[in-house]
Amino acid sequence: MIDSEVVAFNEWVMRVRPCAMDHPRLLVLIHGWTGDENSMWVFTGGFPATSWIMAPRAPHSSGQGGYSWRPADPETFGRPSVETLKPAALRLMQLIDQYSSSIGLNADAVDLVGFSQGAALVNLLGMLYPQRVRKMGVLAGFVPSGYEEFLEQRPLAGKKIFVAHGTQDKLVPLERARASIEILEIAGAQVSYCVDQVGHKVSANCLRALEKYLAD
Q1: CA 211 to CA 108: how far, in whole Å?
Q2: Which fold has domain 5-215?
Q3: CA 7, CA 37: separation in Å to the nearest integer?
Q4: Taking 90 as the threshold, does the pLDDT of residue 216 lie above it?
Q5: What are the tens digits of pLDDT across the range 83-127?
Q6: Rounded to 5 degrees, what are φ and ψ at 146?
Q7: Pairing state between β 12-17 and 51-56
Q8: pLDDT digit string (tens) for 11-67?
Q9: How does residue 130 score in pLDDT terms, banded at 50, 70 and 90?
Q10: pLDDT averaged over the chain?
Q11: How far apart are CA 71 and CA 63, in angstroms?
Q12: Tell me, what's the pLDDT at 77?
């Protein structure tokens, strides 16, 4: 297996696992609030060997250690919106384009996996760039507020999305996850849902289901 490494690219820091195979897919891992470029790596042991993996560090300090995909705002803690996440979504897609071009990789259709706040960003990226996103793994996440503008166009029509959540999650309650699934389905998505008796994390069973989803 090829080892990963931390690299600096333009103004970003990210952990990367190259792929020596012909025509690899680009898999982008998006960490949650207070995470960094290493946080998502715990999930990758069973991810496809055919994927070139990149895990960028979010651009903002969380204010409590680690990083965030939006500026710290105590008044809206835990409730990021489309408005506050959209700048990061635009920058992240620009990074994907610039980095893939620099390594000669076709990134016309990328796979995304995000955790918590990163999962909210995955949902937003899917709605903003449905033609650019192939697969979406939404782990312990939610749809950010302000999504209504997207629903009429059904941007996720025909897209298969994987959602994993814990019944004991106190940071993102299960009810919020179920409400988000309904939103994704209204937007046209076909959602595969894995739920297990864990907190704000991904269970072993759901991780295996995610690996199978990415391998298809």
Answers
A1: 22
A2: Rossmann fold (3.40.50)
A3: 10
A4: no
A5: 999 999 999 999 999 999 999 999 999 999 999 999 999 999 999
A6: 90, 15
A7: antiparallel
A8: 999 999 999 888 899 999 999 999 999 999 999 999 999 999 999 999 999 988 999
A9: very high
A10: 94
A11: 9
A12: 59
The structural domains of the chain, with segments of one domain joined by +, span: 5-215
Residue entry with tokens 């299960």: 174
Token pair in block for residue 196: 């297990």
Angle, nearest 10°, between helix axes 82-102 and 117-128? 80
Q: What is the pLDDT of residue 79?
A: 76
Question: What are the residues facing 145 on neighbouring strands?
Answer: 81
Which residue is listed with tokens 């000669």? 104
What tokens appear for 67 in the block?
A: 């990083």
DSSP of the chain: -PPPEEEEETTEEEEEE---SSSPEEEEEE--TTB-TTGGGGGGGGS-TTEEEEEEPPSEE-SSSSEESS---GGGTT--BHHHHHHHHHHHHHHHHHHHHHTT---SSEEEEEETHHHHHHHHHHHH-TTTEEEEEEES--PPBTTHHHHTT-TTTT-EEEEEEETT-SSS-HHHHHHHHHHHHHTT-EEEEEEES-SSS--HHHHHHHHHHHH-
